[in-house]
Design a protein that fits this description.
32% helix; Spore Coat Polysaccharide Biosynthesis Protein SpsA, Chain A; alpha/beta; 2 domains
Length: 341
Amino acid sequence: MTHLASLISVLMPVHNAGIYLAEAVTSILKQKDVLFELILIDDHSTDNAIENLPAELTRDERLSFFSSDGHGVVAAMKTGFLQAQGMYIARMDADDISLPKRLYKQLNYLQKNPEIGIAGGQIKIISDFAVGEGFRLYEQWLNQLCLPEDIERELFIESPIPNPTAFFRRESYELLDGYQDPEWAEDYDMWLRAHALGIKMGKPEGVLLHWRDHEQRLTHRDSRYDNKLFMQAKAYYLASSHHLQHRKAIIWGTGPTGVYLYDVLVKLNVEVDAFIEVNPNRVGGIKRGLPVIHFSGINQYTDNNNALIIGAVGARGARAEMRQALLDMGKEEGTDFLFAA
């Protein structure tokens, strides 16, 4: 099959998208200054939202419909990709809104940055109800990660690319063999696999998508978005990465997050040397059979060698304080330490 060099294939899995579907489809069909096709994949919907799309949308020759060969978003994406004609593959959710220049800006970004294989996008979270502070902080964190080095630095904290903004070079998508279906979230798994393969990720400046929060969103109802599964994903890819090649780990944090990270890493045959704490009531103690040391003494800790320090404290504001403390000690982020919470 010959693929069109300038064509963007937008894949939109749909499962009971309800009242939001028409607006999502419209937002793609109104994209400006690009050549694209929109492939809508029905993931066994039962709400008739697809059948009830306005005729002015369904008549658009750029829109095509297919039924998923399996169940779930990963199977739907695989079905859609088999039909894709373009050299660029864009992801779109059936309940979000792409701004009119989204595809143009992402295409232009990749064309100007040939070393980058996946473009994401800055987002604005919208909802029919008040957006909580936690989501606003997540939005802020996502939108400050645009450069490839920023995304790589914070990859193990959270998923750095909003999935409905994902925009791939076809060769990158094929190298990754598309989305897979692990125990944890398929989008975070995609970014972790991309990093493992050396595929760089970045974002153009400017909000490109309105990301809708509602009760039926997968992140609220799919068990694969459980925090423990996210930690399992982080540990799995950390254990096989260059970060821990021939190195031990030291975990900063003796709370539930740090202890769970320890448990998962040990199962993956990573040797953990110690825990770090700032609480004087915990320093000098033992956690999981390992010494608990104060962060200020890390350079004098004789067993650390070149151990990777992994920050695993989930309390709000803790990461910034830990980062500054380690930088002040002459540690380099991404080499001497990184964060997993």
